[in-house]
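Internal QA ticket QA-208
Title: Verify multi-chain structure generation after dependency bump
Assignee: T.L.

Test input:
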Amino acid sequence: MQSVHQFLTRVGAGFIGWLKSWRGILRFAAQAAVEAFTPALYNSATRSVVQKQIYFTAWQILPGFTLFAAVLSYVLIQIVVTTARDFGLSDYALEVSIRVLVLELLPLLTALFVALRSGAAINTEVALMNINNEIRALEEAGVDPMRFEFTPRVIGGAISVFALTALTSVLALILAYLAVYGFQLWSLPDFNRVMGQVFTPAAFVILSLKSLAFGLAVTVIPIRAGLEAPRMMFFAPIAVLRGMVRLFFVLMIIEVASLALAYI
Amino acid sequence: MADDAERRALVDQHGAAALVSETMPLRANLSVLENIAIVPQYRENLPYAAAADLAWGLLARLGRTDCAFKRDPALTCEERFVAKLLRACILRAPIILVDRPALLLPDIHYPPFLEATLGALEGHYQTCWIVDYAWNAPLYPPR
Amino acid sequence: MERAPVPATLIRNLEFKVGLLLVGTLVLALAFLAYVLHVRGVFEPSQELILVADDAEGVSVGMPLSFSGFPIGRVSRLDLTDQGQVRVHVAVPLKSARWLRESSRFTLEKGLVGGAKIRAFSTNLADPPLPDGAERSLLTGDATQEIPVLVAKVKAILANVEAMTAGDSSINRALAHADTISGRMAGEYGVLEGVLGGPDKARKIVDALDRANSLLANLNGVSLKVDQMLVKADQRVFGAGGTMDRTDQSLAQVNAILADVRESLGKADAILREAQAAAANVNAITADVKGATTDLASLRAEVDESLRKVNHLINEINRKWPFARDVELKLP
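Actual output:
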């Protein structure tokens, strides 16, 4: 009896803790979003943090990631085009590859890449800041850590994910054109028609919202995970682990939700 | 100060005071100069160049410009203390509390160092209180 | 005051790089938005065409309307009328609208694989152009719907083929019959025997023809006698009054009947010639026999008819002719 009671208490406490941490994430995201649209946020210090975040998250990886995305896109497009030709469905090859790459794969890949790189870094840094009491120290020095450290990172992360997605997507579109029609401009009307079919207003809105949600998740969840960790050194790895796992699931949920919105 | 509880009470009592304490570290990924400059940058929206000039001036007063671009782990105790003090100083808080200087400056005879440093910063702060335990009182020169 | 040296930061031109990235992304995004709006025809004036269909399954917004394989318009909206019909609104850019004419037809085709296709057919490009907001019916042709019917038909055909190839099938029997027929054709009465199924039946036809011939001869005799009667009984006829007209009519009828009979005999001759030709040409036998059979049947009917008419005429004459008893008109 005693053990059952303990078990139930443990389960309940675990669930409540889980709920609390998700509520914390949502509240934090909302706060960051609201602050992002507060002009008072932007001063010389926060701007520099935003700039650095964009620099580290987007600019630094730009050549490598673009190259990777281009190669992946080209290979995938070729596979789709060749397979479609074999089945006599060439008409649909372009549309399918654009849908798969631009609407689904590239945003998700970008978010995953940024999550693995910058998300993990932010998570660790925030966890260490929290453990070292640097956050309190900033407050003591008259600098609001939320405004100085966190919101700018969220903004920078979201902008970075959006920029990377946009760049790689446009690149993928160009590659898709080249793969399907070859190096000439006569097929532009055909291409335009397919583009018009794929990018309906709904698809455009869903893509933008998804990109935004990815960008927010990639920074908000690691920051929250870092802040949530108890202030003891050995919790740093646990905080990073939790943050990363949570981030992975959130990215997948966003992707599935966007698919559900678009196709159901 | 008699004991830790009393010290804590005093620190809490002066919430508006800028605290120079062992528990209030510098931002680890910023240099000393940036750590100091960030305060006017954030609070007064000063451009980085102006804020850095301000911080540089303060460092120059103390003759510590050589550590301006070092980060926390590379600093000696004195340099770290100076950085924290200047960060508090540039905030222009009415009171600066130097909490347990023995912890911040373990390797030197700190009262004369404190006196010299604060003397060099004369005019850049209003009041500076040194919070230390009663048993360290003999270290300080009688007033 | 002493100036801070330019910090030897890790990042050179941070602001410039970030600014470049931001502006680049923004320009890219806006350009892409403008491009998408352009390809969706937002900046292009277009006219509307409404296609009414009973079932618009497979039609979706954004689907192209193609003409000769080129997309010239796009489905912009779908709605359902109170009558349960689907109204497909198609936006056709003005520059493509010249392919649509008053006489244009629109079809919805669904293939086995892939989506449906709306196609326009304009046979006469000289017709007046289709006005804005025109309503046309959308003809549907669905390959998938035809499949069950097609399968059923194929099954029936296979069953037929099986029945045909069976040992006691009608084809086999027909072939056997054809054998017998050709055997009979080799007999005394040739094709006639083959067609009619036996020498006695063929003989009957020949007899009928003979009888018709002798009837003709008799009729000639009758007309001679009638002439004599007319000479003899001139006065009586006129005395009786009114009979003369009717007799004239009867005579005219007799002449007509004789012409008929002659014609029938001519036909019989032709058919016999035809049958002979058929017998010579074994390859074309079936078709010719068929023709000969129908012709012979009609010939028989004609001969019968002639005989019937002659009978009728004689009855008539008997009735009208006061001294008919004296005339012995015998039909063979």
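Spot checks passed. The CA atoms of residues 98 and 141 of chain B lie 17 Å apart.
Status: verified.
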